[in-house]
Structures
1.
Amino acid sequence: MFRYLERHFSRIWLLVFSVDFLILLSVVVMALKTIAVRPGNTDMGRIQLSYAYFIAFILLSLIMLFINELYSIEKKYQPWLLAFKCFISFTLASFVCYFLFHRVLFREILFHFTCTLSLIACGSILCWRFMSYRIIPRINLQHRVLFWGTDELNKAVVREILADAHPKFKVVGFVDSNPALVGSVIMKQKVLGRIKDLDSIIKTEKVEKLVTPCSQARGDFPAENLVDLKFKGIEVLDVHTFYERLKGKILLNGLRPSWLIFAQGFKKNKLTKLQKRTFDILISSIGLLVTLPVSMITALLIKLESKGPVIYQQERVGEDGRIFNLFKFRSMRKDAEQDTGPVWAGKNDHRTTFIGKFIRKVRIDEIPQMVNVLKGDMSFVGPRPERPYFVEMLNKKIPYYNQRHSIKPGITGWAAVNYSYGATIEDAVEKLQYDLYYIKNYSLSLDVIIILKTIATVLGRKGSR
């Protein structure tokens, strides 16, 4: 479990999350003791039920903190914004807890108790977060990474680490087979020595990970040295595997078929398919029920504003290249592509109606796609389905593009929550890198993370057009 967390989250993220959890647990334990010793509390059934209340409070608080992007460790908020996000998170968590338990658990005091608990938890978390801004920079929690080779691909990856001031990795330098480069500085990183000096450099610089080129001449490949390093606990990664962990996407530049063939992941067995289908039906059924009032109002406004159908159907490419009709609330005027033919939607698209601009901004137009999920055309989470015209064009121009159709498309996806709306071939390449990562690393936990990130995206109204 810890290795899984280490691969997908930074040590800083794990530290912040762990302390948040311990703080909430401490607050809850003190509150539970207060309830247990109150005079007249002899109803053990209700006291036991309070355990469920406190567990729900902890889980909901952590979820709300996540949705409000307070686990985006690379972001450092202004004090007032951090306090506001924290307050909103605990207010929402408290509201849901009160709604769930007010009929069965200490109704006479629950409202005041919930408010008090929320304020204490919020204040405690805020104090820790303000302290963390001072403490964490002084603690060396980043993985120390050494790059073998100064080729363009390695330099591009190092450039991304430095540009983001990445919380998970710290570049200690390069090693290279060219003696003329030793001692030179590339992107403010020193070439520390030659390949033969690996062992001493790793000891001196306390290196934890060695990133190797995607291809290397056999005569220059120090297999014995690398085996020794592996047995000493140094993680040896090729540049594509490292980039996958760094950015949460699969780098297409220089990607060889052999990497995809031998890489771990891409699991599609009967159990995972059944699990995903069950999850899709459950989430979509709940989603359609919860959004029914919004859907009825939206349908009425669309009908009042302009002529044409309320539900717009458009051909999309699904699993294994199968064509299906995707349902959406109509957000553009009727016959929007009559003069232009198929085109990607642009920013401030003139074809969009007044109501259409709003429902696209808050993603209400995508609610009917949950019917596609129930029909089995789509999954709730997956690569966004594209139109046949664009699929045919992109298949010719982008390697591995057709592989995104190896699973069902989704209403939301890893690309959707990590990259804004795409309207160019370059955008399609970027989104494909995220889609391939999702297909390779699919799990139910990843789907849950994507749904939570989607809620944050919708609330922040990011990435829509």
2.
Amino acid sequence: MIRFSLLLVLVIHGALNAAIVEEQVQYAGATFRVVRLEPSKVQVVWKDHKGIPFRSFDRAQAAFASEKKSVAFIMNAGIFEPNGIPSGLHIERGNTLHNLNLADAAGNFFLKPNGVVWIESKNQQPNARIATSTAFSQREQSFRADATTIDLAVQSGPMLLIDGARHPAFHENSSSKLHRNGVGIDGDGKLVFAITAPGQLVNFWDFAGLFLKLGCKNALFLDGDISQMAVNPSAPVRSNQFGAMFVVVE
């Protein structure tokens, strides 16, 4: 079955006219674009108010513009099936729109261990988490018991880092170098989004190593060749077709 990347809209409610800061990072002979975001400002979106997937950056921008809001950051995320349907878990504003997928199959999504990035809140304090899908499934059983809510969650794969170690299937000298994007959590608890700069290619081993350099112990692969990220766009951004998206909204 053909699988694509889930365009996950991550919405950051920042201060009015506050610009998102983008870093340029050199690692393993490649250049990466990096953005660090507070989890308290994050929301995930997939469909519009009519239940139609946004699929593209400009459609998401237009939807927020109709609410007199502007998008300051937007990035695709997560693996998806044809028509923009998530391959795995998708929780948006506390609502589960697609269930966790623990099945075995071919493709990057199923390169076990795959994982989940989520934001959980307890006593109105949001915290970002990334863990394997199995670990999330086990943790999920206790959320209600300890009054923890899941604000958003996206499942993708493979995991890039698991408690500071690279995914066991990665090889240091792999010749499979592609355009890639992913997300990690740094030592300050911020979500770290990274994407190879235009024309830059990287294998999984070095992409995982980038997140180690950025201070992350856990990180998740989001997508490959079709990945895109726009920071502080001043006009509608034409993009590839995705599923859900990460977005910053002002």
3.
Amino acid sequence: MQSGDLDDERGDAPAPELPGEPYYRGTVIRWSRGSRHGVVRSEATGREIPFELQHVVVLDGDGNLGGIELREGLAVGFDVGWTSRGLRVTKLFPAR
């Protein structure tokens, strides 16, 4: 495993799809507009990673803040980080 890869004790953290790709690819599989919570499924591993919108930077396709309407089934690029509650999505943007 490369030293730059995200990994946890079990080795099942998502991995970039292509070498040098700066983000992970996935799909929003759950999204609750009311509670502003959701889950992204990694394309590479199938792992489901939760997020709370208040803790996520949402970018449009050009790298600007905001500008996308989250919905279930949306293909996204994402980044992750560790919190006291485990792995969480920290950045979301529409996949190209």
4.
Amino acid sequence: GRLRAETDGQAIPVGDPLPVDGTRYDFRTPRAIGGVRLDTAYRDLERDPDGLARVELAGPDGRAAVLWMDAGYDHLMLYTGDALADPARRRGGLAVEPMTCAPNALATGGDGLITLAAGASASATWGLSPRR
């Protein structure tokens, strides 16, 4: 995404979203995560002509997968697990979570929150595929 949420000490979003351009949070050009600690919500996702936003995940052995999401997902959460209490579980992987709304949306005015009338429905689709 082009924007990320700034958070307080409890990982609650505060203030307006910040641009990622030129920061350590900018992964739009593929690069290693390195020491960047992520518990970070992204928004303003870039989409391909088919309307899908994609996150490519590659390991040091060259294997890769693509997480894709349709327009029903406006936000994306990346989490490296650095804050996990069990040291053996830290940095064991990367969590990538498509989200239909911003974190804490119920308490912050509903950024992206979908509200449905009785009997109405909403849908969104995501998936994993091998590298394109």
